[in-house]
Amino acid sequence: MTVVLMILEGFVLSGCAAQPPVPRAASSPAAPSRATSAPPAAAPPLAPGAAGPHQAEAQKPVDVYAADRPGMLSPVVKGFRSLVYVPNSESGTVDVIDPETYRIVRHFRVGALPQHVVPSWDLKTLWVNNNQGNFLTPIDPRTGKPGRPVPVEDPYNLYFSPDGKYAMVMAERNNQLDLRDPHSMRLLHSLSMPCRGINHGDFTADTSVFLASCEFSGHLVVLDWRTPRVIRRITLGGTSMPQDVKLSPDGTVFYVADMARHGVWLVDAATYKVIRFLPTGRGAHGLYVSRDSRLLYVSNRNEGSVSVVSFAKRKVMDVWRIPGGGSPDMGGVSADGTKLWLSGRYHGVVYVFDTRNGKVIRTIRVGAGPHGLAVYPQPGRYSLGHTGIFR
Q1: Are strands 274-279 and 374-376 parallel, antiparallel or unpaired?
Q2: Has this prediction a pTM greater than 0.70?
Q3: Which of 12, 104, 146, 355 lies in disulfide reach of 16, CB 3.0 to 4.6 Å?
Q4: How many domains does the chain contain in total?
Q5: Which key words are in the record (predicted)?
Q6: Residues 284-330 pLDDT 10s
Q7: φ, ψ of residue 39 in degrees (nearest 5)
């Protein structure tokens, strides 16, 4: 069934529309002592007379990434071999890297223009998004081997609804969000977008709203994915080219990378109003959260660097530079939080950063045009998609 975007009474595309669900605000996490990431210390036992578990839970600050700590692997993935899956967009292939030896252990052909490798909601499958090939290639993460392709129109990127009911295909060239069965990929709903080039997104803390970026028209769209319907369009203006989207751990702010403006936008997650712009580096593109929920890693694709942003202070604390330059793009954080893996989009390599000191410890040669690599498995109860958004 196709859902046609309705222009509701009073709807204003520049930002004012029927009021969306409003997530609850919560207190911010503590400020980091330095721009590195390490597993948090275990909480001490309660002293006699201290608050009980129910009171402690009520007082505990919100952290949407609380299930993503080192060692918190789901029983579903505990038997999976740790591997890094690299889609090479220009080669039409996938390279599989052993993160212990940094060697390619498998190489196989997929379809035309593979963009991202996406963990399924139930954590049991990895999906290669063959954008021009118009199909998804499933990978069994137990073996690392590909399966039979599944026809899907224009799969630039892939997300999953928080309840696991829908696979949400970002059909970028068609300007649509296609809701599909998460297993068979049968089309259920198709939602036209009031913007061009929908590509990345994230959900509010209460999971009721999906904020997505439209890179070719400089917009963000606010979606009620259950209805489904567009409830607001936000114009960033100028020469904006929004890319990756990531919610702050306390659920109060969306961070949106902007490749043309060279930094990240901060958008209020309750009102959907732009708070301010934070410069990071040229070609700001991918966003990744440290395992302790304190830091945001921003890949600056056009200057060969990664900016380290403090969630508590909302400012850049450090910049990690690739010796000789590079093109860090999409990737993920290792399960233990000590490494950040990023594809080198224009250089045919993968970079491995040590998150404890910001140094590049490995550069691995892969196919042409590597893009949305997935580090798998990672901690978390379920996947919301992209290269690994876990909650």
Answers
A1: unpaired
A2: yes
A3: 12
A4: 1
A5: Signal
A6: 999 999 999 999 999 999 999 999 999 999 999 999 999 999 999 99
A7: -60, 140
Spatial distance between the Cα atoms of 20 and 270, rounded to a whole number of angstroms: 9
Q: Would you call 101 exposed, middle or buried from its count of C-beta atoms within 10 A (0-12, 13-18, 19+)?
A: exposed
Distance between CA 203 and CA 211 in Å, rounded? Answer: 6
Q: With b meaning 16 or more CB within 10 Å and e meaning fewer, what string describes 139-166?
A: bebeebebeebbebebbbbbbbbbeeeb
Tell me the residue range of the domain where 352 lies.
Answer: 63-376
Give which of 365, 244, 371 is closest to 309, Cα–Cα.
Answer: 244
Place of tokens 């809701």: 179
Angle at 29 between CA 295 and CA 202, to 5 degrees: 60
Least confident of 60-69, 95-104, 327-336: 60-69
Q: How confident is the model at residue 237 (pLDDT cuts 50, 70, 90)?
A: confident
Closest by alpha carbon to 347, among 329, 325, 326? 326
Residue 294: give its domain's CATH number: 2.130.10.10
Any domain includes 257 = yes
What's the CA gap between 354 and 290, in Å, rounded?
12
Residue 321 domain-assigned (yes or no): yes
Residue 43: inside a domain, yes or no?
no
